[in-house]
Design a protein that fits this description.
single chain, 458 residues, alpha/beta, Rossmann fold, six-stranded parallel β-sheet, 16% strand
Length: 458
């Protein structure tokens, strides 16, 4: 069977490239933009960004020549195979010649709106925006299926790579015990703010001032929020259930993955098999972990029989002491540089590179410090809250406020440091589309899970 590259070449030779639209030309989008001119069979028809000037600066930074993005109209872009840069996402999504939309905005509200527009205009969507996927992906994926479009994770981002490894393990007949990624983590990072983030990362002023570094976005990676969002997305895509206490971030190198990421009953740390976890590249005292997995992903799986266990040993697979638990890992991920794989999979195979299928994990707002009534929450990666992963059923039962809605929303009552922010703690604007969609999703899955109505609705 021809591979993706050959099939993309065939599209190019036939003069029938897949036409793609990118919304958001930030770091992830810029990395994708650097590769598009080198990939056959893909025409980036348009870019929608709140600041077209900033988007054009990103294009110049990654090596585009002015004439490549000099289109003055959609007809001009189609006629010459160039790219139109403008600020109207709806105009991009609704264009009749567009095939695939990439949402790389990082805004939960924008991601929801763009997905619903894709459903209305029958455009496939690649959701780089894990914030939107974690907030409402289980419902959005259903809407997409009803509309006959593909709702896909973004290859190159860790959730899609993890989902691929889980699919590999299950297709090969292995029982998936745990799946996840690595990161740099210490407990104190949960209190990190945009002011302290660069010191924790060790980035130079030159790096920070390059134009690609957003302090609040980077802080969301450091304070645990992004890990929780991504593992919630993995749980929902792969049918895995997070631990009740959330992510433990155990220090663990690649050689110890099968020992650590196995059930407690087998000598590991997992409260149950079929979970998600993030491993830290730092010991709790700050020393680096030997052969860490900071940039990578993994899946731990169990031999279903003694015969398979023996095969693990015969072929040199690294296992735990019992020989039954093993781990496969990928040491790196290349973010937007790999995103073309998602585009190609949709274009030539009609397949998503990971897609949300259930509601198993939820990422909820947790106070970084004592919060007072009247304060306005500043969202993911800010000064006030971080995202903590929990089982979706637990989140629904305690009426937890998802981290994706903890932005520009006012507290009605105080919340102590380390405590979960709940719907009842905030003033809810029911006119916001993102809140309406999230509440609809909660009602749907509460019914499907057989959970009682919240006290506020009982």
């Amino acid at each position: 069977m021809a591979n993706l590259f050959h099939q993309l070449n065939a599209l190019a030779a036939a003069g029938k490239p897949v036409r793609v639209g990118l919304i958001g030309a930030g770091k992830f989008g810029s990395m994708f933009l650097s590769q598009v001119p080198r990939t056959p069979g893909i025409h980036l028809l348009g870019i929608a960004d709140l600041s077209p000037a900033r988007a054009k600066q990103a294009l110049q930074r990654v090596g585009w020549k002015d004439e490549m993005h000099g289109a003055t109209s959609w007809d001009d872009a189609l006629r010459h195979g160039t790219t139109l840069v403008q600020d109207d996402a709806e105009a991009l999504i609704s264009h009749p010649q567009l095939d695939i939309v990439i949402d790389a905005t990082g805004s939960p509200a924008a991601g929801i709106r763009h997905t619903l527009l894709c459903c209305a205009h029958r455009k496939h969507i690649i959701m780089v925006n894990v914030e939107a996927d974690a907030l409402a992906g289980p419902l959005l994926a259903r809407r997409a299926a009803e509309a006959g479009i593909i709702y896909s994770m973004a290859y190159g981002d860790q959730p899609a790579l993890i989902a691929e490894m889980v699919d590999w393990a299950r297709t090969a007949g292995f029982n998936v015990v745990c799946a996840g990624k690595g990161t740099k983590y210490l407990p104190v990072y949960h209190q990190s703010t945009p002011e302290t983030v660069w010191g924790h990362y060790g980035f130079s002023d030159e790096q920070v001032n390059s134009g690609d570094f957003n302090p609040q976005m980077f802080n969301s990676f450091l304070d645990g929020t992004k890990s929780a969002l991504e593992m919630g997305a993995v749980a929902n895509a792969c049918g895995l259930t997070p631990a009740a206490d959330g992510l433990a971030f155990p220090p663990c190198g690649v050689d110890d993955l099968p020992n650590v990421l196995r059930p407690v009953s087998a000598g590991g740390i997992l409260p149950h098999a079929g979970s998600v976890e993030v491993v830290s590249s730092l010991e709790r005292d700050g020393r680096p972990v030997f052969r860490d997995l900071r940039w990578g992903v993994y899946v731990t799986f169990e031999a279903p029989s003694d015969y398979v266990r023996d095969c693990f040993a015969q072929y040199g697979l690294k296992t735990d002491s019992s020989g039954r638990y093993a781990t496969m890992y990928k040491p790196y991920h290349l973010i937007g540089l790999e995103l073309g794989i998602s585009v190609a999979n949709i274009a030539v195979r009609g397949e998503a590179t990971g897609n949300t299928m259930a509601f198993r994990g939820d990422t909820v707002a947790t106070a970084k410090r004592d919060l007072k009534a009247g304060e306005k929450l500043d969202g993911e990666g800010g000064y006030m809250v971080y995202g903590k992963l929990m089982p979706a059923a637990d989140s629904l039962n305690c009426e937890a406020l998802p981290i994706g809605l903890a932005h520009n929303i006012v507290l009605q009552r105080p919340v102590a440091a380390g405590q979960t922010v709940r719907w009842s703690d905030v003033a809810i604007d029911t006119g916001r589309e993102s809140i309406q969609v999230r509440r609809e999703m909660e009602a749907l899955f509460r019914k499907e899970m057989g959970l009682a109505l919240p006290r506020s609705a009982a």
